[in-house]
Queue: 4 jobs
Job 1
Amino acid sequence: MKQEQIDALRLHTIADQKLLIDGRWVNAASGQTFPAVSPIDGQTLCHIAAAGPEDVDQAVQAARRSFEQGVWSRMPPAERKKVLHRIADRIEAHHAELAVMGVRDNGTEIAMAWKAEPGSAAGSFRYYAECVDKVNGEIAPTPEGTLGLIHKEPVGVVAAIVPWNFPLMIAAWKVAPALAAGNSVVLKPSEDASLSLLRLGQLCLEAGLPPGVLNVISGTGAVAGDALARHMDVDILTFTGSGPVGRMLLKASAESNLKRVYLELGGKSPNIVFSDAPDLAQAAKVSALGIYRNSGQVCVAGSRLLVQREVHDEFVDRLRDIAVNLRVGDPLDVSTEIGAVSSARQLAKNLAAVQSAQNEGARLVVGGQALHPIEGGHYMAPALFDRVTPNMTLAREEVFGPLLAVMPFDSEVDAVRLANESTYGLASAVWTGSLSRAHRMVRAIKAGVVHVNTYGGPDITMPLGGVRQSGNGHDKSMHALDKYLDLKSAWIQL
């Protein structure tokens, strides 16, 4: 990753974008478009076709047609594997282009996007390529004279709606296993970050994915997303995003064809530091980045920091020193540590949360103000709050911004109570030098992921999913395939 290469790519003109339906690039039936506005400087990068219900229907029909014709669903697994590997090859060949395009679209710092977006996406396609020919059916232990066969079959048409914070990575978590299982897919990017996923559609065609097997429809959630959720011929809907939208999608499913809906929603993840943590300096550094990276726009961000009282003051001082020295600025500068906030709307929400926390009595230790390193862009100084209590809004509601809420605790029992005092259950962490305590905490914390003496880092081999109001189902690992396969029982009298 060289700065000269990044600087050259940032100057590239991006053409206006169309919808990918049945292997062809088409305008929206209505002719409507929306601007792709960069949070780096507020400039419009291009205009993107805004899909409406008619376009959504055409995309779903194309997916259904390709599925029923068997051009992908009945392709020999070894051949599907080759295509998925070629998709990974194409992503890797365009690594720099995809990374820079994505940063221009959503503001993630390039050092993080380089690995988390094209790097992760290529790895996901390779992982699921290798899973294609390793999904086996079963023979049941039936009585003499009968044969029970359990077949695993692709579901059909999968709709995937993905967010703006890591669009390429999260899309790959959904699209790669859905394709590996033999399904056809309609992918809807967020209207705030569509460019890299439209480019992914083109790369998939170049890699030999048959027309109609992957369709990419850009547009608003209120129009295109809702039409997709209500479509009577979508079999599976998988979504990553906010709780309120997740509820709307469940309602749309109930009011249409009862399609299965898998939701990876938000979190208010507890990060618990005990006084016997093996390295407080390392714990403070990792904990700070666990909430501040990508301007806090990470679903698993450790936004609630619980610190044992004996080391509380020292730990807050360490966090303050880290926060004030983080470099916030141009996300396409390799030395930048914290990039842009995704939009003016999200920045306003963040600043409102800062004011609300202060009004409720939390102490703002440092940060919390808008910054202006680049005219027209959206930036924010990482905010560190102390004296946060469990009843405060900042302790209960996800902000999706760089706001860290610190709360002291006294005992292990106290830590568990505070950690689980949430409607969410996505991620968590425990810092301790005691192996026994680590195992007790892993069992006691109600979350889909528990880190021990680290925060972040699980790769594609580990499942990601939440409990409670953080959702259901899992992305990543072999377990992700379960969402995209149906079980069919065959009872045969011999």
Job 2
Amino acid sequence: MPTTPWYERAAELRIDGRAFIEGERIAARAGTYFDCRSPVDGRTLAQVARCDGLDVDAAVASARAAFDDRRWAGKAPAERKKILVRLADLMLDHRDELALLETLDMGKPIRYSRSVDVPLAQNCIRWYGEAIDKLYDQVAPTAENSLALITREPVGVVAAIIPWNYPMLMAAWKIGPTLAAGNSLVLKPSEKAPLTALRLAELALEAGLPPGVFNVVPGFGDEAGRALGLHMDVDCIAFTGSTRTGKEIVQMAGQSNLKRAWTELGGKSANIVCADCPDLDAAVAAAIGSIYFNQGESCNAPSRLFVETSIKDAFLDKALGMISDFAPGDPLDEATVMGAIVDPIQMKTVLGYIEAGKEEGARLLAGGRAARAESGGLYIEPTLFDGVNASMRIAREEIFGPVLSVLSFTDLDDAVRKANATPYGLAAGIWTADINKAIRTSRALRAGTVHVNQYDNDDITVPFGGYKQSGNGRDKSLHAFDKYTELKTTWIGVS
């Protein structure tokens, strides 16, 4: 049995899997639970409340009451700021606990849970708290006999459904702007990784958030998620996850009360490396690091790598020399850089795509197998395919695992056409020393974010979202407030 300090801390954890409604931990009304298992070693971490429509009704009623009596929306922006900043401080105070929950729950290395996920999540909450008392409304340029005020108001009760790959950070992207704007929130975390969302709700209450403003209903998508999507008293639903489920969410919004529906969905991002790349080593490091970070479980991962033919062999030699650095290891070992796949379903999906790549004629250069079976956990080797063409499944479909497909090109315009020949449009990259080529290509790529001579650099100040079937609306930046506020015009006649 491993004996790192993180295992010792894990043994001391007392995890409460009950829902969080009206400021209290409560069992599911039907008395149902599901086992929350760790992909690290297969252990059962907790029994988590399996919420259904009855629990969702209670959570939405709690959120509606909190919104209607203005216990939160009625607070001055400066007061809301203080509480959100306090929540961010508490997240740092509980940094090790939150990081440990995140790693045990979904398998990412503890080094990243602690150094990336917690800091980014708390910074998101802090940033929106700091922003809210610095936003101004508008006065329209009307004639002298009228005064027209354009003001933002909270939309009301917001339902947020978040994925399992970055549970804490994706929760923060919803919590920050939703609460800063004065809304009430019902959050449904993925059943695959619900633990940090539940703990954040407790910390928010400790920070001073009034009961009822922030509720968490763990459960399954076809039960709790569907109930939120169809609920007649939810004013806005924000979803991050698969394109298939996102389409269902939008349909539910239309079938019910035409609630605002915002989606951040899948991706099949293209990363284009030209022969005049200014730093081939940097391009290789970015390509390899970005696809294998978080076990490849990132919607914006550059899973399609287009390399100009004249430099492809040199590129692949360097890439193969780096892959061993990403061998999967024990997520609770601080030396590990690639951890466990979230659950057996995802493990089977990724391995199935690897088999499809081989069957369709792609050349497997590295990886392709399950690993660390003796641990009891779920691990896959970092995998690299060459000789991929655009018609193969591994080049068309989102895998959501540590699998990189390499396609070669001689004509940049053709590479851009192939990069755009996908239903997705979340992110892309271009590597070239020619600024004109970089600008032309970035304009031609149909993606919400285009990286130039880097990949994955990011900040809370810039919006995140996609074109086409990668969703609508934007997370992060001030643009996120557009999703969680209504614009009101107040027209005043002046005599």
Job 3
Amino acid sequence: MTILFINSIGKNKWGGGEKWIITTANGLQEKGHDIAIGCRKDSILEKKAKEYNLKTFLISYNTDFSFFSVYKYYKYFKKSKTTCIICSLNRDVRIAGLAAKIAGNIAIIGRQGVQLIKNKWKYKFTFKYIDGIITNSFSLKTIYDSFGWWDKDFVSVIHNGISEKQDDSNSVNLFKILPIEKDAKIILSAGRLSKQKGFKYLIEAAALAKKHGKNWMFIVAGEGKLKNQLNQSIHKLNLQTSFKILGFIDSLNPLLMQSDIFVLPSLYEGMPNVLLEAMILGVPVIATPVNGSSELIKDGVTGSLVPVKDGKAIFQMLERNFADPEGMKEKAIQAKSHVSQYFSVSSSVNRIESYLLEKTKNTINNNKPI
């Protein structure tokens, strides 16, 4: 197959969806398929693609439709003899999907890790002519299937894959860059600094920890539009010595290996890669019971669940875990075993390959250029 992964996300943005693209594209390339990444020039995604020797096709549009971009895609599809495209954002489906439909004999797939489609006619129109949607959680499939727009096989659940290999590139030594006391407990979180990730509730938990005299250090790895707002909250609560936002970190593994526990306080998720990364490395986890997180964590067995938007609950769960180190260790062991068995990179890539081969075959047999 000749496959183009498309993601027109901002050039400085990097998250689970972008990481999925690189991991899956690299796996398919290793299996002999011709792979390219459609992304913005000088983006983090372009940089990562080059690191894995993946070809890139540079794109640039911020609107829901662009005749010039449709034409540019059309020319690329004809020249490269593309057989399948995987679109990340709705605008990618509208623009690249139309070009693929005009070119003909190209399977058009949407890939969504969080809910990007709402039960409105404009979305129904956009997704009417594509060949399928891949998501990574059953909760999202249930929502999409409830719209009644397609048959039960249109949305397929293929879980993210995670590697057990520890990436120590660009290693960060927390004890060298931060004023961490010797016996402090290190609580790590990571993700785009947006409302979705719920970091304000982690700050609330840190304020309670300070009030109760806990020797805890809260660390967040990530960049985003709420950075200034979150830092203002940290200063307002006088948490400068116990809550740090590090910014974008190229490899999270070294931070995870130096942490006592990982917390993901999201308001909604797909199947969060950062949670999988923590679990596969044997780091205990606390998360909110949203979407993929609730499918991944069995409360009290492979991790701990806390209510959404509840800083006090996060604080209390941290306190409970630290008071029971053996129980915390056992949950981490169970989590690592679970992720190793059901969320391997090879299994995910094999399922994606089979799915795309079937969709490409069906498209060639049934479709003609418009």
Job 4
Amino acid sequence: MLKRIVKKLVEERLAVYPAVALVGARQSGKTTLAQSMHGVYFDLEQESDRLHLDLEWDDLVAGKELLILDEAQSWPDVFVRLRGAIDRDRGRKGRFLLIGSVSPSLMTHVSESLAGRLSLVEITPFLFSELKTGASHRRHWLCGGYPEGGVLEHKRYPRWQIDYLSLLAQRDLPLWGLPAKPQVTDRLLRMLAALHGQVWNAAQVGQSLGISYHTVNNYLDYLIGAFLLRQLPAYQANIRKRLVKRPKLYWRDSGLLHALLNVPDERTLLVQPWVGASWEGYVIEQALGELSSLGRNFSAYYFRTSGQYELDLVLDIGKEIWAVEVKLTSSPSTEDVSRLNRVADLIEASRRFLVSQTRKPAGNERCLSCDLPTFLEHLRE
């Protein structure tokens, strides 16, 4: 089993909280990670496991083993029981590890029953830095990070991604509350793939689907909650320029994006007119996934003025603001660096990164042109 960066964070949170909720997309590796922690495991989507847990609840809660409850949102009654068990012995830590595949459903029960008693940790599909060097690194951008999606066994892409999204549209998303018919969800997913990396316009999408922008935004909330999409808000700076204020939309997993856009291999990917937006979203997701898995406190934005001054990623990490520009090139120019510095000066960014596919990092601590692995190393500092 490949080592997951987030495992250390889960262990740290279990040491100080009675319960931890590990949330993330279906098939992202949550169950494998949880079972590696050697607790008593129950899959709450299975009626037999629910019955077993119900009958042995008192003994299990009184025991010293970690109780792992997979797909916890599928059995809401368990949250009331958890609250009672925790409140009867608030001093005990590391008792429960909950696993969930959809954040809105899980968060609803957390806010009602477990507020202040539980820590939330998000797991992503495999990150670039979690993979061994070689073929899996080269495939990661094309196939994405899902363990079964082709990054480890290339023949499974893109069939696995298409089947994955089809199952979500037909079963999981309706079960979690999405009111759209599967056919509408499928059309929406393909439309959102074409809008990857663009400023979000709900009215435009709604018009294409024949529904209101309110309904589109409601549907989008479910897709974000299922960890399929990410909205990156606009950075609001106090400068004398008009700023774009609407968020940008990105697919979180590049393999799902490429499968929806019918890209079978890397050669085909590299000739697409939108390949730059794909690379941009990939770098952003790897950076944010890395920070999240390390447990760092941060806020992420993009920055754009009406005059087209733009930064692909702005990271607020407390005492510092980092400005990041992403370019799909192996030979970034001095003008690329100059443009980055001009825009970064507008928001008074303390550090600047131009992330490309260069093999020769150049610059200094304040401004660095580098490849993705080098950028991720700086995030871990």
